[in-house]
Write a structure and sequence with these properties.
Helix content: 25-40%
Structural class: alpha/beta
Distance between the termini: 36 Å
CATH architecture of the largest domain: 3-Layer(aba) Sandwich
Number of domains: 2
CATH topology of the largest domain: Rossmann fold
CATH superfamily of the largest domain: NAD(P)-binding Rossmann-like Domain
Number of helices: 12
Largest sheet: 9 strands, mixed
Strand order of the largest sheet: 14-13-12-11-7-10-9-8-15
Radius of gyration: 20 Å
Length: 367
């Protein structure tokens, strides 16, 4: 039985049209892709996707046909959709530099209880804060689609680290993923702040200026987003290195955490998670299956299922049955680090978090 109505702002790839590089070109706009907002709603029994808005009429028609949305539910003006459809949930799937406007519009022109915004939360910390404030004022939940949070494996791993203390006091983290910082490393950095339950204090960064997405996505627009990285000192005392300079074809999403009671190695591309406990000064490997994690996180399985899981979480939030697992405030923690890398590179100095007011306005554009 369908209890709730949902709409999407932005009929692009992650909304449900399909993404070149993730899907075969001939399937884009024709198949229903599970790893999308529309795919998530399609899998959630209690939510029906009834409307979509996009300024591109051709893209809108393709999306509407692919997801069986009635002609009356297709809009070239998102505000008209918000005012007309009585939506309980609104997905924002537009480029990140438009997230602020579309999230604020969602709660000003509509009355949704949940706004499900694609990652990263925004292009500037000021935009993120304004989105959070607008949703707070409207008594709406702002849920940010950092997909890893919506997988059972990562939720269990966080319990092991934060509640059961398998690593003890975390001293250092080394992490690596492909370029670009805002578009891709938001996954990596959100995983970091989620597992550590920490916030950056000091950031030092380097920007390469290289952006592969121009070619791999056939993008027709220049953006600020680029490869880069640096180091971060977290407020729990841990020291983190981040390398997101690597081309897509060469990269693996890896993270190694070293603590007073053990160490953990995660590779989400090669499908390998390994854990060692520290006993009398020696690291002894222990199978994570002993704690309920069978195998590693994978893109083909866990990432695909993250969208239905997230949509079901939207449903839980609509019913009032759950606490927000990926709030706007938490999503801002990874954005602060990325903006800090840019500020550090271009000023030649370290950056303190929270950012001072003028620095919160710095915008990093991406898709």
């Amino acid at each position: 039985m369908t209890d709730y109505r949902a709409g999407i702002v932005g009929a692009g790839g992650i909304a449900g049209l399909g993404i070149l590089g993730m899907h075969d070109e001939e399937d884009i706009g024709r198949e229903k892709f599970t790893a999308s907002h529309a795919g998530g709603y399609h899998a959630a029994d209690g939510i029906e996707l009834v409307a979509v808005a996009d300024v591109d009429a051709e893209k809108l028609a393709t999306f509407g046909d692919a997801w069986d949305i009635d002609e009356s539910g297709r809009y070239t003006d998102h505000r008209e959709m918000l005012e007309s459809e009585g939506l309980d949930a609104v997905s924002v799937c537009t480029p990140s530099y438009l997230h602020r406007d579309h999230v604020v519009d969602a709660v000003e022109y509509g009355d949704p209880d949940v706004v499900w915004c694609e990652k990263p939360i925004a292009s500037s910390v000021t935009d993120a804060n304004e989105m959070i404030a607008a949703c707070d004022d409207a008594d709406a939940e702002l849920l940010v689609n950092h997909s890893f949070r919506f997988t059972d494996k990562q939720r269990r791993l966080r319990e092991l680290i934060r509640e059961e203390g398998i690593l003890g006091e975390i001293h250092s983290v080394s992490s690596q993923f492909r370029m670009e910082l805002l578009r891709n490393s938001t996954h990596l950095l959100d995983t970091l702040v989620y597992l550590l339950d920490a916030r950056a204090e000091q950031v030092s960064g380097y920007i390469t200026g290289e952006n592969e997405a121009v070619d791999s996505l056939d993008a027709g627009q220049t953006v600020d987003d680029a490869g880069g990285g640096g180091f971060v000192v977290m407020d729990d005392g841990s020291f983190v290195t981040v390398d997101c300079t690597i081309p897509r074809a060469d990269s693996s999403m890896t993270m190694q955490l070293v603590g007073s009671e053990g160490k953990l190695y995660m590779n989400n591309d090669d499908g390998e998670w390994r854990y060692w406990t520290l006993e009398d000064g020696e690291h002894v490997e222990v199978d994570l299956a002993e704690w309920g994690i069978e195998g590693a996180w994978t893109w083909d399985d866990d990432y695909e299922r993250a969208f239905p899981n997230a949509a079901r979480h939207v449903e839980e939030l609509l019913r009032g049955d759950a606490e927000n697992r990926s709030s706007g405030r938490e999503a801002t923690r990874s954005l602060e680090i990325i903006v800090g890398f840019y500020l550090s590179h271009y000023t030649g100095g370290q950056v303190s978090v929270p950012l001072d007011r003028p620095l919160r306005d710095v915008e990093i554009t991406s898709w």
